[in-house]
Specification:
The protein has 413 residues and is α+β, with helices and mostly antiparallel strands. It has eleven helices and 19 strands. Strands 1, 2, 8, 9, 10, 11, 18 and 19 form an eight-stranded mixed sheet that branches. Helix 1 runs parallel beside helix 4 and helix 1 packs parallel to helix 8. The N and C termini lie far apart (69 Å). InterPro entries: FAD-bd (IPR002938), FAD/NAD-bd_sf (IPR036188), PheA/TfdB_FAD_monoxygenase (IPR050631). It comes from Sphaerisporangium flaviroseum.
């Protein structure tokens, strides 16, 4: 067994872990970044970065990785929905929410992660690909072991960052438990050949028993998502699943019944998952180990804020590590307080989006119609939609009250 030493070991080479490696290595710390994949490949992860997440990327010094990795600015948002008539469909300008930032970015996750890992190496970090069976022993001097084709390895560190995502590999090892809830299922796939789709327009809507999302990535490529009831969790699995997934976009509410989507060509794997919200039941850290990104807890993916949160986590934790020599659990209290506040708001917002757009049947359609009328009359009713675009602390507080939710969803006008 080989034994190494490092200031920080980061388990997980996705965007949260790789961005932290970039920042910490550039700050002069010795960093080892462990990634379980042999090469970065499309695993169907989050690929949409809100304007407030773009600002976090800039602060971390990794923004250029998004552009070089294929980042594509989304300038308009269209809602096509069975509850919306053709003359009610309008484009929302997505470039106006944070001055100087522009619209959100859509991009291939694996390409951006690979570039961030390369930037970390250029800054002095050591990258280990194909790192399997990562185990962490917490403490004042935490120990990390992992395996590669060359055998078993051990690293003794001052700090370990757990960034393995929703699998919570490191969190489980250090005893962090999650309170999980699931409202629906989701699926995603990359496609090419969508040249008939407007290149800078993302779309969402609900019809029948599916809620769809389309995120262009430029040059005819797009990431497609579907959200659907748990009773349909097997619908897009097995032989013919890809064909059924694409056919689900043949919707009356879409222009030309979704022809631009249904005739697209698969350009990556189809993945289907339970859309789970995970809230940590205690602090997502112990002595010597801090969790960041989805591993520290996450809201339902329907909200689309996972990557923005991951970058906020990365920046906040890196700032603490670079600020001084106190790396005790108490030093991370500001991170824990801000994250708890943020996750509470995002989880509340995701529950509203899920109930509004990922519930089906005549009553749900009428609910969406009524909410649209309310939003048209009272702009303040659109407050929760800001969570997709601006940081949670910048969203008015009344949008997170039970009174607001009752007002939005009451069944009678």
């Amino acid at each position: 067994m080989t034994v190494d030493y490092a200031d920080v070991v980061i388990a997980g080479g996705g965007i949260s872990g790789a961005s932290a490696a970039c920042r910490l290595a550039a700050g002069g710390l010795s960093v080892v970044l462990l990634e379980k994949q042999e090469t970065y490949e499309d695993l169907v992860r989050g690929e949409w970065l809100a304007p407030w997440g773009i600002r976090e990327a800039q602060r971390l010094g990794v923004y250029d990785c998004f552009g070089a990795g294929g980042g594509w600015e989304i300038r308009e948002w269209m809602t096509w929905d069975e509850a919306v008539s053709d003359d009610e469909v309008e484009a929302v300008d997505m470039t106006r929410f944070i001055p100087g930032i522009g619209g959100p970015l859509s991009f291939p996750h694996h390409a951006v992660s690979e570039l961030m890992a390369a930037q970390a190496v250029d800054s002095g970090a050591r990258l280990v690909m194909n790192a399997a069976r990562i185990t962490v022993t917490p403490g004042r001097e935490p120990v990390v072991t992992y395996q590669t084709a060359g055998g078993e390895h051990e690293i003794r560190a001052r700090m370990v960052l757990g960034a393995t995502g929703r699998g919570n590999t490191i969190g489980r090892q250090i005893g962090v438990t999650m309170r999980n809830s699931m409202h629906h299922w989701g699926g995603g796939m990359m496609v090419a050949g969508m040249d008939g789709w407007p290149a800078d327009v993302q779309a969402m809507g609900t019809e029948g028993d599916v809620m769809f999302m389309v995120f262009p990535q430029g040059y005819g490529r797009a990431r497609l998502y579907l959200n659907f009831p748990t009773v349909n969790k097997h619908r897009y699995r097995g032989p013919g699943g890809v064909e059924r997934f694409l056919a689900a976009f043949e919707l009356d509410c879409l222009p030309d019944r979704g022809k631009a989507v249904t005739e697209a060509v698969p350009a990556g794997p189809l993945s289907v998952w339970p859309s789970v919200s995970s809230v940590p039941e205690g602090p997502p850290l112990v002595e010597g180990v801090v969790l960041i990104g989805d591993e520290a807890g996450n809201a339902d993916t329907v909200l689309g804020t996972g990557l923005s949160c991951a970058l906020r986590d990365s920046r906040t934790v890196c700032d603490i590590l670079l600020d001084g020599d106190d790396w005790s659990p108490a030093a991370f209290d500001p991170y824990l307080r801000e994250r708890e506040f943020r996750l509470e708001r995002l989880d509340f917002g995701a529950s509203i989006i899920s109930r509004l757009h990922v519930e089906f049947g005549p009553a749900a359609v009428e609910r969406r119609r009524r909410v649209r009328r309310l939003m048209a009359k009272n702009f303040a009713a659109q407050v929760t939609g800001l969570l997709n675009m601006v940081a949670p602390e910048d969203v008015p507080e009344f949008g997170f009250s039970e009174f607001f939710a009752e007002r939005l969803f009451r069944e009678t006008a």
